[in-house]
Specification:
Strand content: 5-15%
Order of helices and strands: HHHEHEEEEEE
Number of strands: 7
Helix content: 25-40%
Shape: elongated
Distance between the termini: 65 Å
Oligomer: single chain
Number of helices: 4
């Protein structure tokens, strides 16, 4: 029995100083790891914007192959992410649709373009989340060129105002036919404003541009 008591008394433990050092190390690691983890999360969310922009780019190019011009009627072209509104952090589309050059538009109508679904004049048909109780309608109005996000950080969700400068460019001749489609989203709680949230664009040459990181 005496040997057992001596053995118990000889067992070593952690001192208060050692425990405090361990806690300090854990705190230091957390201070470094948490911001990096949040940054990683934000980067992962930005990949959604690139996928959306790539899909819009493909729709524009397919439209061009049919009608020899670009336009602003994204839903008519086949790009309609309205049904996925509640899974999208990014609003996507054309912020300032420009009227298509009339000669190019008339030639497209002759080739089969439905003018009522893709008018020559610049019309803005923004998606919305006002009817979420019944689910967002899809397909959207074929003239639709803007699709808002339905997912965000806390109560902050990207609106059309978060879209960076973008338009369907000019379609006056083969040398000047351009477009610029934008995506704007809230991926970090510290960057929720119109001028600070993440924003990207893609053009007719499939060049991505990061307007703002947003994290």
């Amino acid at each position: 029995m005496k040997n057992l008591l001596k053995s118990v008394k000889k067992q070593d433990g952690f001192t208060l100083v050692e425990l405090m050092v361990v806690v300090a190390i854990i705190g230091l690691l957390s201070a470094v790891a948490i911001p990096n983890f949040k940054k990683y999360q934000a980067k992962a969310k930005v990949s959604e914007a690139k996928l959306q922009l790539s899909a819009a780019y493909t729709a524009e190019q397919a439209f061009f192959s049919d009608f020899n011009m670009y336009s602003h009627c994204l839903a008519y072209m086949g790009f309609d992410p309205a049904a996925e509104i509640m899974s999208r952090y990014f609003s996507v589309g054309i912020l300032t649709p420009a009227a298509v050059e009339i000669a190019a538009h008339n030639a497209a109508v002759t080739s089969g373009l439905l003018a009522v679904n893709c008018p020559q004049g610049a019309t803005v048909q923004a998606g919305s989340i006002t009817a979420l109780a019944n689910g967002p309608a899809s397909p959207s109005d074929p003239r639709a060129n803007q699709f808002v996000a339905g997912k965000g950080i806390g109560a902050s969700v990207a609106t059309i105002a978060h879209l960076p400068p973008s338009n369907n460019g000019t379609q006056t001749d083969a040398l000047t036919m351009t477009f610029l489609i934008g995506a704007g989203g809230i991926v970090d709680a510290s960057f929720v404003g119109v001028g600070t949230a993440a924003a990207l664009t893609i053009n007719q040459n499939k060049v991505f541009s990061v307007v703002r990181n947003g994290y």
